[in-house]
Amino acid sequence: MAKLAVFDFDSTLMDGETIDFLAKELNLMDKVAQITKEAMEGKLDFFDSLVKRVALLKGLNEAKVNEICQNLPLMPGAKEAVEGLKAKGYRVVCFSGGFRNATSHFAKILNLDADFSNYLHAKDGVLTGLVGGEMMFSDSKGKMLLRLQKLLNASKEETLVVGDGANDLSMFQYAKTRIAFCAKDILKKEATHIIEEKNLALVLEFI
Questions:
Q1: Any idea what the CATH number is for the domain that residue 151 is in?
Q2: Which single residue of 1, 81, 107, 165 could bond 200 by disulfide (Cβ 3.0 to 4.6 Å)?
Q3: 10 is catalytic
Q4: Contact partners, residue 10, CB within 8 Å, separation at least 6
């Protein structure tokens, strides 16, 4: 049986929300952050919130997007958490409602086995305000987790998940070890473990 660990990216592996950093470039951070907050608290459908927020990024230079995405701050303890899990034989992957521009870069830095996220559509080097990908809906993470468990022959008992917001709920139901990391109340209610300190290495205490 394989052992599988799945981390959310925004506000879990990375300290902050990718889309907030991008919105800051257009002086739209407050507007985008409010939509993000409502979505993570479960007050707004994740798909609707994603489409609304990405539409606000229309016109942003793609090279600038990549520069911002590759200089995001990692969460303290992220490298230690991944290394520790791998040392225990876990496959470690990232599921993100955010963007491949960021997750593929940090998957290499953290030595993740895979990253699943969304694509910001660009034309002629400029964002069109459209988005597509693997993590578009509130239940995307749960469905992807089931597919990975089947592919890797990993049971619910051997699966650990870590997240912070409402769109992580769908993967919580398929894992025995469910860690709410500096999380919204909606997620804490479904967690087996809660971490309130910004130190991802604390995850290792639960394996």
A1: 3.40.50.1000
A2: 81
A3: yes
A4: 16, 17, 18, 19, 96, 97, 98, 164
